[in-house]
Recover the amino acids of this structure.
């Protein structure tokens, strides 16, 4: 069926783009276009989009650092929550911020205000919304440890406040946001700490990353979740796939659970490599790897 290629909403201030290339919006740098693409200027505009979407499916994109968008692109509306929706307030050790704020900026703000507990975010290139969705974490901490309250919008634009009961809401690289809901704001509480000490901790964590992870490459971080039995990188090593490359898609030599677009890979090349790794790891170790990268859209 032919797709409509223009769409307008009366009174909407934010621009609606048609057939918008998404590859440049993701860290892996691959993927086809969005049928419609919007970076809302305000939550009022976000609400209007949701209330006027009809039957069009909605996909949310943060910083695009944990997604693999397929070569055929994404039907319906892609909504990017980024710097337009990144306001924050800080009161003592409490930071309330909008979903488009970057986690690295959040770590920086916490340091400047002598708030401890946010240090682990300093090397994670996502936004708050994506961080909450993935329960992003590193070096023994994750988002669930700081979150006191969340605001989320449902599929028709109504705003809900979520407790959250941390035990039920968050788990390893996962949150139980109802399908189609969008994180719009969170209140995070840290602890009073010495600014210099926070800076030292962040410097040490950054150094650890530089030593153990590939730098300056197109990647989406860890490709697979760590099974409870062994880290994913170890299983990939056991399967002999460290550094394995096919069609420009590569498992990093420096960190074998990092998949890299080494230049010319398509989304299909990257996804095929990931599935090949899963297959080989299962064959050689008996373990099943689960994707941590979120794959979305349709094949090219
Ligand atoms: C170099 C590198 C290092 C990384 N290191 C780490 C690490 O140490 N720890 C870690 O946990 N991750 C790491 N990641 C992965 C990634 O940065 C995190 O998962 C991050 O939280 C994703 O945020 P994002 O804004 O980029 O989300 P996206 O990649 O844009 O989206 C991820 C998912 O979240 C959903 N989403 C995004 N925003 C919202 C919202 N507002 N409401 C509802 N759903 C939303 C999307 O639909 C998608 O399903 C790394 C990635 C890279 C490239």
């Amino acid at each position: 069926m032919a797709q409509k290629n223009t769409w307008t909403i009366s009174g909407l201030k934010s621009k609606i783009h048609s057939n918008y290339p998404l590859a440049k919006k993701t860290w892996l740098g691959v993927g086809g276009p969005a049928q419609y693409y919007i970076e809302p200027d305000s939550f009022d505009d976000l609400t209007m989009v949701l209330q006027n979407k009809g039957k069009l499916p909605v996909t949310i994109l943060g910083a695009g650092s944990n997604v693999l968008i397929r070569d055929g692109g994404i039907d319906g509306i892609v909504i990017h929550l980024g710097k337009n929706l990144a306001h924050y307030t800080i009161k003592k050790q409490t930071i309330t911020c909008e979903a488009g704020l970057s986690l690295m900026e959040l770590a920086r703000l916490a340091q400047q205000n002598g708030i401890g507990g946010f240090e682990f975010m300093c090397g994670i290139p996502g936004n708050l919304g994506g961080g909450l969705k993935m329960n992003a974490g590193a070096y023994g901490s994750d988002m669930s440890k700081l979150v006191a309250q969340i605001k989320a919008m449902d599929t028709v634009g109504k705003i809900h406040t979520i407790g959250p009961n941390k035990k039920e809401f968050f788990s390893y690289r996962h949150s139980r946001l109802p399908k189609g809901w969008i994180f719009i704001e969170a209140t995070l509480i840290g602890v009073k700490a010495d600014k210099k000490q926070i800076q030292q901790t962040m410097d040490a964590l950054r150094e650890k990353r530089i030593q153990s992870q590939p730098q300056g490459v197109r990647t989406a971080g860890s490709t697979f979740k760590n099974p409870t039995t062994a880290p994913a990188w170890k299983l990939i090593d056991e399967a002999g796939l460290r550094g394995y490359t096919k069609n420009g898609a590569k498992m990093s030599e420096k960190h074998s659970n990092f998949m890299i677009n080494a230049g010319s890979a398509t989304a299909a090349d990257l996804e095929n490599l990931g599935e090949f790794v899963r297959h080989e790891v299962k064959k050689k170790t008996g373990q099943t790897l689960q994707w941590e990268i979120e794959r979305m859209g349709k094949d090219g």
